[in-house]
Amino acid sequence: MKKLFPVFLVTSVLTSLSAAGCGNLASTDHLQGRVGFVVGPEQQIILRVNPCGLNINEIRISGGAEQMGDYTANPTYLILHSPEQHPEPFDLDLGQIDSPWTMASGQGLPENPGKVLLVTAGIQDEIDRTGQTSAYVGDIWEVPPGMVQVGIYSEERQLITEEEFLRCT
C-alpha cells in the first residue's frame, strides 16, 4: 500500500496542474449568481444578470470554438466594462450598450441563428464570476415572456422562470 500512495499523489497533482494549465479547472469556489437571455419589448436580445451580491463590472460574451489554423479558439464577441460595481440584478440591451457600460473589445454579436453565445459576468481581473451560460442565437429569439434562457443542453434546464432566475442559492 505504501508504494501506491506516491503514485496516487503524483497523479492527482499532475491532473490538477494539467486542468489548471489549460483553463478548464472545474471549481465552483468563485462562482456566484447567474446570467441568462430574454427578448426585449423591441425584439432585441437582453442579457439578464443576477449577481447575488457579486460586484459585477465585466461581462464576457464569446462564441463556440472555431478552427483557426493549428488550434481551436473561441471568438470574442463582446467584452464589456463598467466603472461602477453592480451587485443587484440588472438587464443589458446587447444591441445598444448604454452607460456606464462600454465595449472594451470584441466584434459584436453574430446574427447567425446557429451560433452559440457563451457568457459570464464577473469582477474585472479577478476570478469571481457567475456561472457560464450558453445559448444559440436562434433559440434566444424564441424565449417566451416571463422566462429566461440559461442553457442549451438537454441535461440542463434551458428555460427557467424569472422568479427562479432571481433566486440566489
CATH top level is Mainly Beta
Q: List the domain count as a whole number.
A: 1
Q: Biggest β-sheet: count, sense, barrel? A: 5 strands, antiparallel
CATH topology: Immunoglobulin-like
Give the low-confidence spans: 1-26
Detailed description of the structure:
This protein is of the alpha+beta class and 169 residues long. The protein has a single domain, classed as Immunoglobulin-like, CATH 2.60.40. A hairpin with a 2-residue loop joins strand 4 and strand 5. The longest helix is centred in the first third of the chain and has 18 residues. It is globular, with a radius of gyration of 18 Å. The N and C termini lie far apart (42 Å). The N terminus is likely disordered.
Helices and strands in order, then pairings?
Layout lengths: L3 H18 L12 E6 L5 E6 L5 E8 L2 E3 L2 E3 L2 E11 L3 E4 L8 E4 L10 E7 L10 E4 H4 L6 E3 L9 E3 H4 L4
